[in-house]
């Protein structure tokens, strides 16, 4: 996945898409990867990742992904397994939404289902 950037020309500091920030923050908060591993994966600095996590917590305070410092180090219980599965499912949903958004931007075609459409005639 290539990180989306805006404003790279003219020496401006790059601005990242919100969906990219969410994906990186959720991946970090899931607790499976360190900032170094995520930084290498997306070619980001630790400061970028920290900024994304702070931004995510500010804009999505009721997120069900627990902060890393609140996660237990003991053997995983059923709740921990379910929490990780939920976090992974949310990450997949974010990825699918990003794919749909990118496709719509590239082709100019809205592929989301429109409400009130009539069923096909038989």
UniProtKB/TrEMBL annotation:
The lineage of its organism: Bacteria, Pseudomonadati, Bacteroidota, Sphingobacteriia, Sphingobacteriales. InterPro entries: Trp_repressor/repl_initiator. This is Transposase. It comes from Pedobacter nyackensis. It comes from the Bacteria. One of its GO terms (molecular function) is sequence-specific DNA binding.
